[in-house]
Amino acid sequence: MNTLKSHNQIIWYNETLISDSVKLCCDPEYWQQQGKILGSAQGRGTTWFVQTETLPAALRHYRRGGLFGKLINDSYWFSGWDKTRSYQEFILLEYLIVQRVNVPQPIAARSVRKGLCYQADILTQKIPQAQDLVGLLQINAIDSTMYEKIGQEVKKLHQANVNHTDLNIHNILIDQQNMVWIIDFDKCHIEKNNNQKNWKQGNIDRLLRSFQKELKKRQIHWKQTSDWQAFLSGYTD
Ligand SMILES: Nc1ncnc2c1ncn2[C@@H]1O[C@H](COP(=O)(O)OP(=O)(O)O)[C@@H](O)[C@H]1O
Ligand SMILES: [Mg+2]
Predict the structure, then answer these.
(1) Residue 166 belongs to a domain with what CATH number?
(2) pLDDT tens across 80-130, in order?
(3) What is its main location (predicted)?
(4) Domain span holding position 69
(5) C-alpha 7 to ligand 1 mean position (Å)
(6) Is any atom of ligand 1 closer than 6 Å to the C-beta of 174?
(7) Fewer CB within a 10 Å sphere, N or C end of the chain?
(8) 163 C-alpha to ligand 2 centroid (Å)
(9) pLDDT tens across 174-186, in order?
């Protein structure tokens, strides 16, 4: 990992994936001026898909969710560069790739200090031709083999001791080869204490609530009796 520092910001980047545009690569305006915006997706904010010199990428600005987020939208308390959200997510993604969990390759992360606070952005590989599970299930049901694969991927994540604190079906992508990808690792971390199993169950409970919520909200094609069981059998086996 390389770094580019100036008085109030650091950009961490993978020099094999980006070099020419490092300085501006976390500014959506830069990609817009270059005519290199490929599209966008809506989450807490807008995720921009951009064409970098080596590969299509997803650019996200860190934003808070919830009520507090309405007041203080994108500023975080600064307590050291290596504690910033973008840096933390960058190194966590690199760790997960080594652990062979399917997650996007990080390209660059930026933190900009503003007094006592900072703002942050991350640029990751765009998973090619992938759709998130909510989008997919709004159109079609998926088979039990697919649910087992999702279970297996979450199991790999947990075997790597990573707590995904926002594991929901917006953050699981399926590509054209039926590969399962897990995204959105803001605030996620490696659990040091191996004996403490509750966090794993917490992730699983949250995922189940996400299916149930989208069943009500968007009438996704999902059946708790069969589909959730298939997920669990992939996860436990
Ligand atoms: N690396 C990626 N490849 C493909 N799509 C992505 C990628 N990252 C994000 N997306 C899309 O953008 C949406 C929002 O991004 P996400 O990282 O989940 O941020 P947030 O939920 O905080 O807004 C995702 O649900 C997904 O549809
Ligand atoms: Mg998300």
Answers:
(1) 1.10.510.10
(2) 999 999 999 999 999 999 999 999 999 999 999 999 999 999 999 999 999
(3) membrane
(4) 2-125
(5) 30
(6) no
(7) C
(8) 15
(9) 999 999 999 999 9
Catalytic position from the list 74, 166, 175, 237: 166
Could you confirm whether 227 is annotated as catalytic?
Answer: no
Same domain, 14 and 105: yes
Question: Same domain, yes or no, for 62 and 145?
Answer: no
At 15-59, the pLDDT tens digits run 999 998 999 999 999 999 999 999 999 988 899 999 999 999 999
Query: What stretch of H or E contains 210?
Result: helix 198-218
- b/e code 15-32 from CB counts within 10 Å (16+ = b): eebbeebbeebbbbeebe
Structural tokens at position 76: 């975080």
Task: Name residue 125's beta-bridge partners.
Answer: 57
136 residue type, one letter: L
Residues 158 and 48 in one domain: no
